[in-house]
Amino acid sequence: MALHFERSEFDARLARLLARMQEEKLDAMLLFAQESMYWLTGYDTFGYCFFQTLVVKADGSLTLLTRSADLRQAQLTSVVTDIRIWVDRVNADPTLDLKDLLSDLDLLGARIGVEYDTHGMTGRIARLLDHQLASFGQIVDASYLVSRLRLTKSPAEISHVERAAALADDALDAALSLVKPGADEADILAAMQGAVFSGGGDYPANEFIIGSGAEALLCRYKSGRRQLDADDQLTLEWAGVDARYHAAMMRTVVVGNPSHRHRELYSACLETLQAIETILMPGHTFGDIFDMHARIMDERGLARHRLNACGYSLGARFSPSWMEHEMFHMGNPQEIQENMSLFVHMIIMDSDSGTAMTLGQTYLTTSQAPKALSRHPLEFLNR
Hints:
Layout: H1 7-23, E1 28-31, H2 34-41, E2 53-57, E3 62-66, H3 71-77, E4 82-85, H4 94-104, E5 111-114, H5 123-133, E6 138-141, H6 145-149, H7 155-176, H8 185-198, E7 209-212, E8 232-242, E9 245-255, H9 260-277, H10 286-299, E10 309-313, E11 327-329, E12 341-350, E13 355-364, E14 371-372, E15 381-382
Parallel strand pairs: 1-5, 3-4, 5-6, 9-15
Antiparallel strand pairs: 1-2, 2-3, 7-8, 8-9, 9-13, 10-11, 10-12, 12-13, 13-14
C-alpha cells in the first residue's frame, strides 16, 4: 500500500481519537474532513469534493462510505478495509445510504459526532444529513476534535514537515535566482513550483501567491502575470509540501532601489517576528502571539496596515487551503505545546504609499525557544 507511515503510527492516532471520543461520550464519529481521514488512515484523495465520510466507532472499527471512483484509491492509500459504495444516480441522496449504514453498524440511538466545519461538508450535505439523522440518534458538532489532535506532531510527522521546509527553501532559492528588472512572474512561479516537484514534493493545498507592483499588496493568488520594473516590489507566499505536510514561507523582495518606507516596514516586520520568537513556546497561547504582533505594529503607527491575524498551525492539508483552524488572532485561548508546526507571518500593506512588506516562516515548537525550519536568514531581500 502507498502509506507514508507505519501501521503503528496509525494505531497510535486511532488510540488518541478513541480516548477523546470516550471523554466526549461519543459512540461514533462521522469524519468529513479529508485531513482527518488522511491523518487517521492514510486515505489520500481529492474525492471529498463529492459526498464521502469515514465512520469511526468507539470500538475502533472504521468504515468508509464513498463513490466507486475512490474504491481503489482507498484500498491503495489507506488502512481501511471496510469500504462501502454509494451509487451515483439521478436525485441520489447519499445521506440515506449513510443512515442505512449506521443502522447496519448498530448505531441507532447513538451519540454521534459530526465534522461540520470542513470543505468536505457542503451546506447541502449538512441539510440532508441533519434531515436523515434528526430522529436517528443524538448528533453533536465535533468539528474540531480531530483537528486539535493533529496540532501536535509525532516524530514521523516532523520528518515530513522538515522535508517540506527544505523544499520551501529550494523554492525561494529558485525564485531569487530569477528576480531582477524585466523578469517575468510566470518564470519565477514556474521555477518555485518546479523546485518543489523536482524535490519529490506535492501540489500545495492552495496556490502560491505572487504579485508585483500594486499587486504586491495582495494576500491571495490572482490570475495574470507581469514583468518586473526597474524599481519594483514582489511579494511571494508559498509552501514546501511533503506527503501533504506543509511548511510555508513569505517574503517581499524589493527590486532596484528600495524606498525609505520599504526599509521602515521591514524593520517593523523583523522586530515583531523576533519578539514573537521569545514567546512562541509552551506557557503562552495563540492569542498571546497575536497580542505581541498587534502591540508592536500599533506602537509603530501601523494599525491600519497590518492584518487581524499573524499566522496559524500547519500540517497535512488538502485544497482549498493549507491553513489549519487554529490561528494567531485576538483572544485565541489555544495553548502552545511542544512539537507544533506553526507559520508566523508579518504582513504590512500600506495602501497610502503603495508599499508592501512581508516576512514569514514556519517554526517547530520545543520546550524552550522555537526552531526555525528555514535555512534562510530573515534578511532584507533586494535584487
